[in-house]
Amino acid sequence: MKFGIYPGGRAGTVCSHPPDRAAIGDLIDDLAGGRPFVIREYVHFFGEETPPDVITSLGADHDLAHLTMPDGWYVENGRELDLVVSYIPQAADVPGWLSFLDTVIDRYGHLTRYLQVTLEPNFPIPLIDGSAPGVLQALTLGIPHARTALDRRGLHDVQIGFSVAEPAEWLGGDDEFWRYLSTVPQQDFADHVDYVGLGLYPDAFSPVAPRGTPGDVASLTAHALHHLREHSLPRAHIPPSTPIHIAENGTPSGAPRTEQTQCDSLSDMLNTILACEEPLNIAHYELFSLRDAASDSPQPTGTLGLVTDTYRPKQAFTVYRDIVRDASSPATTRKS
């Protein structure tokens, strides 16, 4: 399994400090320990009707100018860029979206190893792709369009996928999304999908059962993984040979939780994911995120980081670093 992280320190509209590139570089080098490491980044398609203040609130004003770190950093020392292209216009604009994919590939394709087309299109909340008009067409037309665009530029090694949010029950049901994918011929969509990502936050936004009891973090994690592989993906004609990427996974440390609670949850989630790696064909794990968006925020999204918003490592930093090193050691290396 490959491991990775989002380095930017922003969660939606929450971000209290600009990134410190020197601190990010040192912390990620420590986490990776000289091993290959996946770096997750985001760019956004807004269309023509999105107000400028919405774009600014997401920190997306300069998406096509630069990512969190300098370009060359993403391809040095075994790092691999996982680039998410999010579709969130206020009015459906699939032609504009396909043109934007071309622009993103022209700008970042040479740096990219994994290209995620749309962000959680099954998740209908504001500022997430599932709420955007035309998102189903953006996904199903965007995947094959991106493949053609990459091939035309000689970027044949870039893998293309999409991500979905965690279990359907938590969302109130995403049956309509999977029903739509079931109607798309396999050769028009599923055959072009190299991986499917899962956004997994079992204890971030809802209370969970105590550790070691049914409905705890570990059991919710296992349910999400099995539900995706055994129930949802077959409906979309996506076979077991297509790997799952844990595209986002996080747990907060803010009140009423503590840094120790964050450690316990992170350990339970990762141990469950590692146990499911081979039977469910899970190839990647990417943590959200390196830095808190706002360590004093009352919102769970504010404290998902391994370090505070001033880059002080929390206990969870050591937990993740040790798991990365243990799981990547010669005695325990798994197929990835």
Description of the molecule:
The protein is an alpha/beta fold. It has a single domain, classed as Glycosidases (TIM Barrel), CATH 3.20.20.80. Helix content is 34%, strand content 16%. The chain is built from 9 helices and 8 strands. Strands 1-2-3-4-5-6-7-8 form an 8-stranded parallel β-barrel, surrounded by 4 helices. Strand 7, helix 8 and strand 8 form a beta-alpha-beta unit. Helix 7 crosses helix 8 and helix 8 packs parallel to helix 9. The longest helix has 19 residues. It is globular. The protein starts with a strand and ends in a 9-residue tail after the last helix. InterPro entries: GH.
| CA radius of gyration | 19 Å
Low-confidence stretches: 331-336
Which structural class do you get from the secondary structure elements?
Answer: alpha/beta
Question: If you average the pLDDT, what whole number results?
Answer: 95
Say which CATH homologous superfamily is assigned. Answer: Glycosidases
Task: Please provide the ordered H/E string of secondary-structure elements.
Answer: EHEHEHEHEHHEHEHEH
**The CATH topology is what?**
TIM Barrel
**What is the architecture at the second tier of CATH?**
Alpha-Beta Barrel
Helicity level, as a percent range?
25-40%
User: N- to C-terminal separation?
Assistant: 4 Å
Tally of alpha and pi helices: 9
Shape: globular
Strand content: 15-25%
Number of domains: 1
